[in-house]
Amino acid sequence: MSLPISDSELHEAVDNVPIAPEDLQGDADLETFAEDHRHAVLKAPVVLRVRELNKSFEGLHAVNDVSFDLHQGEVISIIGPNGSGKSTTINLISGFLKPDSGIIDIDNEPVAGLSAPEISERGLARTFQNGRVFGALTVDENISLGFHKRLNAQRPFKSLQKYPIIRWLPLLGETALALVPGPHTLRENKEVDKRVEREVDRFKERLGDRRGDYTYTLSYANRRRTEIARAHISEPKLLLLDEPTAGMNQSETAEVLQQLQHLKAQGHTILLVEHKIELVTALSDHVIAMDGGRIIAFGDPDDVRRNPEVVAAYLGKRREIRKTTAAAGQSDVLAKQNAIDAVAAVNEPAGSPDSAALASDGKKPVESALLTLDNVDVYYGQVHALQGVSISVPQGAIVSLLGGNASGKSTTMKTILGLKHPKNGTITYEGRDITHESTRGRVKSGIAAVPEARRIFPAMTVEENLLSGAYTRPKSDNIAADVALMYERFPRLKERRTQQAGTMSGGEQQMLAFARALMSRPKIICMDEPTMGLSPKLVEDVLEQIATLRDELGVSVLMVEQQAELALSIADYGYVLQNGRIRLYGKASELLHNPAVQEAYLGGAVED
């Protein structure tokens, strides 16, 4: 059930244009709908009012006098480079942080300084940048949790839960009704089931047959869809979406955009943080651009994206990322017969001049590589997740592992790190078999990881996070000197050394994840989606840092990345996974312009 728009002029504007995105005929209809909607919502009541909002961390003014209004039925997007204050702003609005000063009102009711549960009870629902679902619960159970705050029969004494001394009373009441539900509780359960079914129906092609599956078994994109459904089920006054398409490929992004356009057409009020400008422009009524904690532009999407100050802050000065094929001190890498070239030469079929178009099932890597997977099979129960996968990573090279969601990329990473164990095949590192070695043993021998969504320790300081990266090293190993080197390589981290890592921007957390991995003095780093959720400017910075690991430190990199062109732009070699098999492989320069990559990358994969 969608939130109704009471303002008559907004009704009139919506009724006079086709509101279903697929019904709009061409650019003219889209522009007419967007323009009419943009003007109409400004006459609707204000749902969210923010005035002179401020927040500082250890002297850093993260949010500086931010003010704006969000009207009923309006969609506003916040854009800006990482570290501009976007995440801090929405964390203040949703109660995850308390402001130093300023006003936050929802429906003219002050909420600044209230806790996240209290603000949620007042009609706000949100998703998170890195995606947060309960992995041990099913899709249906995750979605139904979003309606918990609206329950009445199942939550006796819920008004007492904010009092610490007696909050056990509502918990005891909920437990009792869960064990012995009364008639009112049973009726409420049926209503929740109907609402869950309706939310799943929005993503029926993706989630329809996965309702009873645990969410840890889902692909990243399907976990994000589950999270959006969980936020929407409560029919919130304000829906706050933090990077809802982060980690999704183009087709998945387009699908989510269509769902969000339906929510907009139905009158939902949405505050969106997003880096994908095309999505922002297609969805938003107005856009806020931030930099340095301040709002530097506000207005129509096209006007803001063309604003010179926004272009300079958000995109930065574009530069060519350094692309070399050999690490410092490793100038003879390509002169030697490395793993991938040797595999191509031995296995290339007659009449096929392009090694990048080969399928490599069952191919045996040569022994000169730093790391190899040889004909590896991995299962999740009865699901054959990796099927005869063979990969080689030469010393001092960047290898990109590409593919759509649920293609097997993350499973490959987990297998290399010892978090998953192959049923068949071997993993060789520095010429020795590590197939059955523990994760700790692999880290000690020089295999490090930068996991998906960073996975820093949010309640620990920056320096404590860095020290955790050296946990396998003895205390006598001059760890303090390496911390100093990390601060020299990442000056931003030195400025925030005593700041809680969870309060930093996504880009700063990515820097910290890199530095933490380097603290183990690795020979190879496995990176899972290192550019996910980052602004274009910071994406270039991250890619340059990855190239530097190879060029200056001689560290090999195996990089999982959704965005094929970005990954191949700095890589030496690439593999394309589809449905758990290697479908393409070869030199990155060849794969970058090979049309078969797009076919294998976007087509045919069955989603988890």
Automatic annotation (TrEMBL):
Question: Which InterPro entries does UniProt cross-reference here?
Answer: AAA+_ATPase (IPR003593), ABC_transporter-like_ATP-bd (IPR003439), ABC_transporter-like_CS (IPR017871), BCA_ABC_TP_C (IPR032823), BCAA_Transport_ATP-bd_LivF (IPR052156), P-loop_NTPase (IPR027417)
Query: Sorted alphabetically, which keywords does the UniProt record give?
Result: Amino-acid transport, ATP-binding, Nucleotide-binding, Transport
**Which SMART domains does this entry report, sorted A to Z?**
AAA (SM00382)
Pfam families in the record = ABC_tran (PF00005), BCA_ABC_TP_C (PF12399)
CDD domains, from UniProt?
ABC_Mj1267_LivG_branched, ABC_TM1139_LivF_branched
Look up the record and give one Gene Ontology term from the biological process aspect.
L-amino acid transport
**Domain (ABC transporter): residue spans on this chain:** 48-317, 371-604
Domain of life from the UniProt record:
Bacteria
Classification via Gene3D superfamilies: P-loop containing nucleotide triphosphate hydrolases (3.40.50.300)
Keyword Nucleotidyltransferase attributed: no
Listed SUPFAM superfamilies: P-loop containing nucleoside triphosphate hydrolases
Q: Which GO terms describe its molecular function?
A: ATP binding; ATP hydrolysis activity; branched-chain amino acid transmembrane transporter activity
User: Family, per the entry?
Assistant: Belongs to the ABC transporter superfamily.
Q: What name has this protein been given in UniProt? A: ATP-binding cassette domain-containing protein
